[in-house]
Design a protein that fits this description.
The protein is an alpha+beta fold. The protein has 3 helices and 6 strands, in the order αβαβαββββ. The N and C termini lie far apart (33 Å).
């Protein structure tokens, strides 16, 4: 795994009420990741980009919803989500507060 690949693995953080509760209670953060990314790549990417220590990673596939566009049926794209548990004392702040 080269650094160029690791920089592309994380697509975006997932910020919602559920992930905010997870960050406070379980020291976890959630990311949208590439559909072919594995746990090791996600862990190394988080450690490289945010300079924190990763304890564990859980990855799940999210199926795209069926949607109607007028009379036509369509489907949103499938995507992948990763829950990253950080070691005790580590923190990632997406708020940007100084």
């Amino acid at each position: 795994m080269n650094n160029e690949r690791l920089m592309k693995v994380l697509l975006a953080p997932i910020i919602s009420e559920k992930t905010s509760r997870l960050a406070e209670s379980a020291n976890q953060v959630a990311f949208r990741v590439l559909t072919d990314a594995n746990k090791l790549e996600v862990a190394r990417a988080v450690e490289l980009m945010f300079e924190v220590k990763v304890d564990s990673v859980r990855i799940l596939n999210v199926k795209g919803k069926q949607k109607r566009f007028g009379q036509r049926l369509g489907k949103r794209q499938d995507w992948r989500k990763a829950y990253v548990r950080l070691q005790a004392g580590q923190d990632i702040d997406f708020g940007g507060a100084a």
